[in-house]
Structure formats: structure tokens, C-alpha cells
Amino acid sequence: MGDFNNYEAVIGLEVHTQLLTKTKMFCSCPNIFGKEPNSAVCPVCLGLPGALPVINLEGVRLAVKAALALNIGINKKSLFARKNYFYPDLPKGYQISQYLDPVSSDGYLSVKTDGTEKKIRINRLHIEEDAGKLIHAGSRSYVDLNRAGTPLVEIVSEPDLSSAAEAVEYLKNLREILVYLEVSDGNMEEGSFRCDANVSVRRKGEDKLGTRAEIKNVNSFKFVQKAIEYEIERQIEITLAGGKVVQETRLFDSKTNTTRPMRGKEEAHDYRYFEEPDLPPLILDDEFIGEVKKSITELPRAKREKYVSKYKLTEYDAEALTKDKEIARYFEDLIDKNNGRVEIKKLANWVVNDLLFGLKSITSIGKPANKEVIEKAISELTHVGADNFLELILEVESGNINKNTGNTVLLEMLKDPNKRAAEIIKEENLAQVSDDKGIEEVISRVLSENPKELEAYFAGKDKLFGFFVGEVMKKSKGKANPKKVNEMLRGYLESLKKGGN
Ligand SMILES: [Zn+2]
């Protein structure tokens, strides 16, 4: 009876994401983060009497784009409603949102966890406006209304998720799609992608949902994971002890990895929703929807599948190459320019192992949470144009320089993107020594400078072969073609042995 394993979690997620429009949802104030407080405001978003809202069509376009990508049905007629509540960051005393008739409903997102595919149903995606922001400093609080009225979509899943890991996977996929489509910048630190999680538990095999708690505004994947894990455990413990889970809103504390009560959850009717009298119904025609559909580019998941099936790349490489849209674009540009000269698998290796690694050594791209670092890395990557990078790859593939030298050249290129690969190779005299005479000279020098090792080698210490190769490479400053060095050294030693006998 009283076993943790007899219980299962039921999780639904509400995601709020800011849209990348130039202006706010119902006025022409700029939609900008981090400006001087209260500098991007007007009578409409300040809620001054007599000011009238106007629907931002770009906001509608981005919402429809997101909905289509998430397989959510578009409702040709939708309504805006007032969601009434009082809070100091909400100057109008209500938020314009969509309630009974959202712009889109009934969709799904496929999520892969532990190798199995699961369809997570999406109840709806609707348009609304954001509230302002309170800034607490010491004993005072300030209000900044720059964010008031900025466009948001809320994406509400059905309670189809059953673990913290699944929830995180869903969020990652969702965020990736929105960022790829340029619907949102997905920046979690700045709050443009934030999540509320509804968590409840029930005995396995039961249909009825347990009482849920809502965890508000969690702003990183790690915190979502921790918050849900803690909440599941807390609720099962209460249930096992014979208690009852209370319906409430809880806050996640990232210092202790626990959640604590914030306030009792308002029932939906507490908001006294009613249709927004200042806005007409939102009517979308087939032409508009069709045009938005056309603007949807290949989604990351489709790209990954194509990279694996068509280009024969590993899942790992496909993942690394598609994680960021700009990197994928760069890689595809490289494939186009390459025009079949170098195997695609090799191009992928160059981008993943050398270019991204090269960038890592300069900018430490390994920290995906840091937007600035990624942006810097990507700008450096795109500065070394695909054609220039391809030149470098061809220099290596043709044997003009070896792989190590190639990486040296790459680092030079990253430091100074205006320099062409060929130019650096010429300037620094890096071209590989492949001519037999040059290599033979170095071999003969190395062997005569190491008589003891040579004797030991002839006495049967075969391992010393590697030592000689190393010395030859060192003497030629890494420019000798290693394959050639191996062949010639073997021949040379062979002839010495015969000559000695
Ligand atoms: Zn405004």
C-alpha cells in the first residue's frame, strides 16, 4: 500500500513566451528589453482613460506561425477578453488575453524520452499581453511599465507528462522550435520564455486526477527539473501519510531546491473574464494562414532526421549541427559550396570537431545558457565565411597541409577572419613537405643524430620506430606528410639494415 512506486505524477505545463515583434501588442511602443525604466510607454499601455488598443498584426502572424509549427489548429475567428485582477504592475487593472475563443487550439508536440516517442497534446495557444515589472530595492519598490503590453503567447499542454525529465524534454523541444522560427528569442534569464508547472499525483491505474499544485515562473530547465521532482516527492509523502494535497500556487526556491506556498490559487471565475469591448474579433482568412505557413522553415527535428538519413551523419553530429540555427545554416552553406568535392561526413567533422572546438578554445561555447557567448561564437563562425573555411578543408584534403597545420590555420582565421586560408599557409610557410628529397634529408639527419636508438632498434626494439617518426615530424616543424614519413622511414631503415649486413 504505502509504497512510492504505487504512485504516478501527472504534469501539465503552461509556457509564456514573448514574441519578437518590433512593437507592443496593442500600441506602437517599442518591444525592447533593458531600456531606461518607463521610457517605452504611451497612453494605451499605461492604461490612461480614453486610449484605445489596436491589434499588432505582426504579433498575430508570429502566434499563428508558432501554432502551425506545433500542429495546433487555427481558429479563423477568435476573441480578445479582459482578465481582471489588481496588481501594481498592471496599470489598466486587467490584462488583454484570450479566453473562450483562442486563436488556436488542439495540437501536439512529439517528445522523445528514453528512446520512446510520446505525443504531448497541446490544449491551446493564445495571444495576450505581458504585465509590467516590479523592482524591489531595500525598503522601496519601483514599477517599470516598459514590459506592460508586450506580446506574449501562452501555450498550454494537456496533463500528458509523467516525469520531470519528460517535462524538461517538452520544454526544450518547444523552445528550440520557437527560437528556430524566430517567433521568440527564448531567453529564459530575461523571462522571454517562462514556465508554470501543474503537478499532481495519483495511484497508478486511477483515472481521476489528484489535487494539483501550480509552481509559478520557473526560469531554467534545471530549476523546472528540480521543482517538479521535489513537488512529486512532497505530494506522494503527504498522501502516504494520510494527508491531503492542497490546491495552491507555489514558488520554487533555487537555493534549497524546494517549493513553498505563495498564495491560494484563484479559481478561473475570480478573473471575471469578459469580451474586450475595445477590440473587434480577430478574423483570419486562408490567404493569411497560407502565407504564414509558407514562412515556416525546416524545423530542427526534421533537419536532424535528414542529416542522419540523407547525409549519413551520427545522431551526435546531427544534434551538434542543428542545436543552433546559424550553425545549421553555415553547415548547409558549406555543403552547397562544396558541391560534392569532400565527403559530407568529413565536412561535419570539421564543423563539429574543429570549428566548434576552435571556437570553444577562444570563446568557450560550451555554456549554452550564456547568450552572449553563443552570439559571439556564432558571429566569429560566420565571419570565417563558408567559402574560406572550405578552402582550408580542401588544402588539408589535397595533402597540401596536414590536419594539425590545418587547425593552426583555422585558429589564425578565427583571429583574423579577413585572411584567406591560402594566404596564411603561404605567409607562414606551412605547406606540407611531401617531396621525397626534403623528407629523406630529415630522416637521414635524425638517424645520424640518434645512433644509440638506431642500434637498439636494429637489436629488436621496434617501438623506437615511433620515436624516429616523432623526431622527423618535430624537425620538419610538423609540416611533413606523416604518411609519407612512415613509408620512407621504413624503407630507409630497411635499406640501412641490408647495407649493414
Ligand atoms: Zn504603448
Outline:
The protein is built from 17 helices and 16 strands. The chain has helices at 43-46, 57-69, 164-180, 221-240, 286-294, 300-309, 315-322, 325-338, 344-363, 371-383, 386-397, 403-415, 421-427, 436-449, 451-458, 464-475, 482-500; strands at residues 7-18, 73-74, 77-78, 81-84, 94-97, 104-113, 116-129, 133-137, 140-144, 151-157, 193-203, 213-218, 248-253, 258-264, 274-275, 282-283. It is elongated.
Task: Give a written overview of the molecule.
The protein is of the alpha+beta class and 501 residues long. It folds into 3 domains: 4-288, no CATH class; 298-427, no CATH class; 436-500, Arc Repressor Mutant, subunit A. Helix content is 43%, strand content 20%. The strands form 4 sheets. A 9-stranded mixed β-sheet has the order 2-6-7-10-1-11-12-13-14. A 3-stranded antiparallel β-sheet has the order 5-4-15, with no helix packed on it. β6 and β7 (116-129) form a beta hairpin. The protein starts with 6 loop residues before the first strand and ends with a helix. The protein binds zinc ion (ZN). The site of zinc ion has 8 residues, from α1.
